[in-house]
Amino acid sequence: MRVGRFYCELTIGSSIGHMLLWYVIIILTFGLGGFIYPYALAKFVINKTWIMEGDRPVARLRCDLNVASQVSHVFIWIILCILTLGLAGLIFLYRVGRIVANETVVEPV
């Protein structure tokens, strides 16, 4: 049974704007913003994704992840990355994917 397909309305302009914003944030926070960037990137893409049935959208994906809920998680991973000389960062990216997926809902149009 086929339910539909995903359609992402991400444009090059919005991608460049998002990237530049996070580049500035990472510079201003002396690199610590780099730990929050994977969450922001995944949320940015998910919030621009629709579920299509034929040529019409039937639902959209929405990620309810906020920075406040990420702070303790990011703090733990910063410590782990320091202790493991960066090796924990590889696992961190998979954990980010899991958390973002768990916070994503499908909203009917």
Task: Throw out a few tags for this protein.
4 strands, globular, alpha+beta, 109 residues, 54% helix
Briefly, what is this?
The protein is built from four helices and four strands, in the order E-H-H-E-E-H-H-E. With 109 residues, it is of the alpha+beta class. The longest helix has 17 residues, at 12-28.
Instruction: Give the end-to-end Cα distance, rounded to a whole number of Å.
Output: 21 Å
Specify the biggest β-sheet.
Answer: 4 strands, antiparallel
Q: Element order, helices and strands?
A: EHHEEHHE
Strand content bin: 15-25%
- Count of distinct strands: 4
Integer average pLDDT = 92
Percentage of helical residues?
A: 40-55%
Radius of gyration: 16 Å
Shape: globular
In the predicted model, the low-confidence regions spanning at least 5 consecutive residues are none
Strand order of the largest sheet: 1-2-3-4
Structural class: alpha+beta
Number of helical stretches of at least 4 residues: 4
